Amino acid sequence: MISKSSLYHVVESMAPLYVAMGLGYASVRFRAFTPEQCAGINHFVALFAMPLLIFRMISSNDPYAMNLRFIAADTIQKAAILAALALWARLSARGSLAWVVTLFSLATLPNTIIMGVPILRGMYGSMSGTLMVQIVVLQFAFWYVLVVFLFEYMAAQRALVAKQQQAAAPAAVVLTVLDGDQQINASAVVPVTEGDRNADTNTEAAMPPPPAEAEAAMAAPSAKLILLMAAKKILKIPSIHASMLGLVWSFIAYREGIKLPTIIDDSVAIISVSATGLATFSVGTFMAQQSRFISCGCSVASLAMAMRFLVGPAVMAASSLAVGLHGDLLHVGIVQAALPLAVISFVYAKEYNVHPEIMSTGVIVGTFASFPITIIYYILLGL
Amino acid sequence: MISKSSLYHVVESMAPLYVAMGLGYASVRFRAFTPEQCAGINHFVALFAMPLLIFRMISSNDPYAMNLRFIAADTIQKAAILAALALWARLSARGSLAWVVTLFSLATLPNTIIMGVPILRGMYGSMSGTLMVQIVVLQFAFWYVLVVFLFEYMAAQRALVAKQQQAAAPAAVVLTVLDGDQQINASAVVPVTEGDRNADTNTEAAMPPPPAEAEAAMAAPSAKLILLMAAKKILKIPSIHASMLGLVWSFIAYREGIKLPTIIDDSVAIISVSATGLATFSVGTFMAQQSRFISCGCSVASLAMAMRFLVGPAVMAASSLAVGLHGDLLHVGIVQAALPLAVISFVYAKEYNVHPEIMSTGVIVGTFASFPITIIYYILLGL
């Protein structure tokens, strides 16, 4: 049974996140910030604050002392959901790769870094903060890479279809199609929302894709080419750099027993401490800038919420029990699986134009819904 | 004699500030951020991060345990310099109120909150952090209010001159002059740099000054009217609100022995922790956006540096000794007086167009110069 005081402690850990979000929301609604100014803050988060926070988290995590059982449960949950979705896509007429990626992201990619660490710490103490970091390592080292790869695969497929259509079309269309390709390529320099595009396009404008690539895209999308494109895209995401660098450093540091010099650690920290506040503020501005809270249909929104708050946690519970987790470890796994959707999932969906309206709804409604839902999970698990 | 290790400790406390500044500078130079995006970050600092940091600092400072001697030394330093400048302005043909305000700001208003707290803590331990807060209380409760009052007085004087000229001018000019007045009134909603103006003007557009005010401005600028205008302006500065609120709360809390509930304190902290990193980042973007590092003449720049790094600390040393300070307290007072110029001083100078080029130079050159100068002061005082 959860005591009143520990319940209040959880509310204490969640409230600041919602206050920062509310501040962001109000700032846009009362026109204290222009969309371009919001984009500046979002860009700062994507380019500096988040990567440095991820680096600091991962580099200070002992990779030789990871909880393998916990990681296994997390991996089995994601792999099982992906396999089930792939099977459904193959068997059902309504199934498609786009839906597989969308439903997979909804079910398995919660907001671990920004919301998971403070909330789970408030619930189960500092032990759970360490577990969150282990999940973050896998997210950035594998799962987001996989998601970007699948998005790239779909983009290449679409490009192929466009090329085939172009064979019977006048020359003017060729240019349009090629432009379209470049647009896809120009995305995801950093995770960005709409308003942030300008800066990226500027950066990208200086380096158009080499002609060889455009020609290669004329052929069927080979797995090798798609891998190459995905790799190029992934290597441009600061958070991925940061997690790799952090991982490499953690392997060296914990083997050799060395620490990052204070002067470097403090220089990273001066920016990284701003990540949680600015990122949640940014989610608030994002909400206020959408024309509707539920931008997809209500039935699709319900499906999205069911994937996020029921399927994800249920499969996590099953896989945790399967590997023999129990007690707090089991509870931490389930509650973190029921956190709101990671904003980065919306960002990619938007960039590649694969169900962005569903992901937007997932972030907005999910963030509101998660306040009571997370607490209900916490109470139920404590019975 | 300062040991090598404590000297390194000081460099450790300064380095992160310069790293964040360098990041801001590079971000603009490499076009990772547009001017409008920088304005967004600066606006966030002025509207939320700084006020909340100031509130948190002041509200957690015990007002019944202030070091009266230290405060007296700080007050005497500022009052003495102001008196000397006023005397010079009265006696010299080259003296003017504009120069009094400029030289006073240069000599007595260092960057206490953002740079003072971490650097002085690195030098003399947490005791000096508390002393910095006491200086901040007075800065916001009195000295910045005075500076804004003097700027308002000059603006009113200029408006009067314009009105007198207008008496003999065609009607079209009247409109221009009135517009000019409104422009001055529209300033300083929050401390802003140039790019930040749009948002402010938008906010302000909804509330034009009542006609009575415009008529009143036709008459000679009465002290009462100027006070009213200054009060209106000051009441629009979030940092002033925050410091007043923090002061009131600290008087209540430390008398009654109560504390701010954790849920409120954490909600303030989630934003306020970003202030130091974002504010120094913002100074870096400010530097990169200026066309020249030294935008006033070299001799004026030298005068500005002399006021900041020699006159200010020297008068502080004299006033500290006069009230009987010695040891670390004396050293803390002198070193904090030799910190770089507060960015807010530039912001006001820019808003009221009173020697903005000198203040810009004061911030930029002063920030670079202060790295060695602060350390030299520290070493000399430790001999």
Automatic annotation (TrEMBL), chains A, B:
It is found in: Membrane. It is a multi-pass membrane protein. Keywords: Auxin signaling pathway, Membrane, Transmembrane, Transmembrane helix, Transport. The chain crosses the membrane at residues 6-28, 40-58, 70-89, 96-119, 131-151, 234-255, 267-288, 300-323, 329-349, 361-380. One of its GO terms (biological process) is auxin polar transport. GO terms for molecular function: auxin efflux transmembrane transporter activity. Its main location: membrane. GO terms for cellular component: endoplasmic reticulum; plasma membrane. May act as a component of the auxin efflux carrier. Belongs to the auxin efflux carrier (TC 2.A.69.1) family. This is Auxin efflux carrier component. It comes from Musa acuminata subsp. malaccensis (Wild banana).
